Amino acid sequence: MNRKYRKTVIAANWKMNKTPSDTKAFMTEFKAMMPKGRWCDVAICVPAVCIPAAVRAMRETRVGIGAENCNANASGAYTGEIATNMLVDAGCKYVIIGHSERRAMGETDAEVNAKVQAALAAELIPILCVGESLEQREIGITEEWITMQIKAALNGVAEEKIRKIIIAYEPIWAIGTGKTATPEQAEEVCEHIRTVIRKLYGAKIARATSILYGGSMNEKNAFELLAQPDIDGGLIGGASLVPEKFVKIIEAANQPTV
Ligand code: PEP
User: Fold this and answer.
1) Where along the sequence do coiled-coil regions lie (predicted)?
2) φ and ψ at residue 169, rounded to 5 degrees
3) Which protein residue has the closest C-alpha to ligand 1 atom 7?
């Protein structure tokens, strides 16, 4: 982390877990134990049907609610899809884009790019996910793969818009597997992501971009991961479903930084 130049962000990704009633119960418990200091931004990205309950519960707190996906089109014949202006109107501040679980369902780089552009146009903060598979890591193409994913996702995104984006490095082999990347492995790729942003948008923007790590981050390993200079927060799946665990990760963000 480096709080001098960029925001620390702890973001939850609930995936397809919890009902609206569960959401209300979680938020009540979470609010009661939420750390008081303003150490980091907190985002909770929830299933679409839980957004109203989450927004209602977190009104007048520093927690922003997010969606887990969006459609890039403004409106029309896209049964079952949700447009960015609908998310904004529902009270969302963030949207996860390009999660590997959605890419595995067929989401392409071009679609990820269109969603990033639509989210930025609607003034939502995109949490753009990138990450390599175990096979890609083993054959030594992690950096090339991540570079390609970022360039594709940000294609045509103007300099004045890029400032709002959050990038999450999520190695696929670490998501939901309990196999966390070591702090050194995670730092190496997050530093590489910052280099890619520097080459695309310059040093000032690269320095100000929040880059998160995601992949089995939990209350036990968060402190060490967040101590790395280029890891500005976490995108947390499993451990974000339990208020005590999520709060401990937020507390880990309260550590001295470089
Ligand atoms: C995720 O879904 O983005 C994620 C990182 O999940 P988990 O923390 O469960 O590995």
Assistant:
1) none
2) -90, 115
3) 237
